[in-house]
Amino acid sequence: MSALRPLPRWADILLLPIINLVLAFVISGLVVLAIGQNPLAALEAIVGGAFGSGYNFGYTLYYSTNFIFTGLAVAVAAHAGLFNIGGNGQAYIAGLGVILVALPLQFLPWWITFPIAILAGAAVGGFWAFIPGWLQAKRGSHVVITTIMFNFIAAAIMVYMVVNVLKPAGVLAPESAMIDPAGRMPKLGTFIPWFKNTDVNFTLLLALLCLVGVYVLIWHTRFGYTMRALGHNPTATTYAGISNSRTIMIVMTLSGALAGMVAVNQIVGVQYRLVLDYVADAGFVGIAVALMGRNHPIGILFAALLFGALYQGGNELQYVIPGLSKEMVVVIQALVILFTGAMEGMFRPGLQRAFMLLSPAQKAEAEARNTAKSES
């Protein structure tokens, strides 16, 4: 049996997910066909709904912005061997920090409010992730369990705060006061007419900066090396004199801060107030985005764009093809998660063999190893 070498980095990040994605869409097409609809027409409706106009593409970018933040939040923790599935709660609770600075500063220009809102959202979201990190580092509580629980705690706190504390007198809807127009972040459509009046705003640029920042942090800093070492072998990092507990708490705080940027996008850039359930499960989608993107910023960018397209395209699908509901997009998303997440290694051995055949040097080395083993 030939010894298989790991795939090249580009193949692992791009080629393998593309193969899995194609298979997911093929299976989705068969499901659409089974219910009596044309799969090519459904695909055309989704693609057109996501990219067919500046308006549609603007909303695709809006959804993708949130998914970039939550995908990065999962990825940062994953590189340290942690599975943060509390991004939903961290993004949700961060809304308190954002609205509590945005309302007092609402009469200032948005470009002053924006960076302060970023700091507030990062602080609250980071604190909400720090607690599970501290519990794992100091008390041995598993971060998966605690982050799940903190999602529900955050939801309960937000209901209480919005309904009993932040809701203005005389307002029936469960929401805070509106931010004054002077403090609202302008939409990108104000400067790029092609986007029209869509919800995509300057937080998209913040998301792109976060992608670059996370890449530099993980692969070009000493702390990033410490994170990756912890994720690969915590025993070795302890032997090297690294404080694993300190690293865990810092990583979880950074992860929660990234998730908290969803609150900045939603409150300062879109809703202009704090409303219930504004996160819309972006934290859970971020898990799929990180899995599909192999926890790499470039992969996360493309995965977030894909899921943003599925969300926006799904909104259009039910209007273009009456026989298909938006739930069909949920099926497609589930299949994408299945093949790019749970079954992502299905094609890996075949690809590794294919790359060996394309590389004579690797093939000769593998044959030499097998010969040496057989002779020993």
Describe the structure.
By secondary structure, this protein is an all-alpha fold. It has a domain at 56-307: ABC transporter involved in vitamin B12 uptake, BtuC (Orthogonal Bundle). It contains 15 helices and no strands. It has helices spanning 9-34, 39-51, 54-79, 87-102, 110-139, 143-166, 203-220, 222-232, 234-239, 244-271, 282-292, 297-320, 327-342, 348-358, 360-375. The longest helix has 30 residues, at 110-139. It is globular, with a radius of gyration of 23 Å. The two termini are 16 Å apart.
Describe the secondary structure blueprint for this structure.
Elements: H1 9-34, H2 39-51, H3 54-79, H4 87-102, H5 110-139, H6 143-166, H7 203-220, H8 222-232, H9 234-239, H10 244-271, H11 282-292, H12 297-320, H13 327-342, H14 348-358, H15 360-375
Helix pairs in contact: 1-2, 1-13, 2-3, 2-12, 3-7, 3-10, 3-11, 3-12, 4-5, 4-6, 4-10, 4-11, 5-6, 5-10, 7-8, 7-10, 7-12, 8-10, 11-12, 12-13
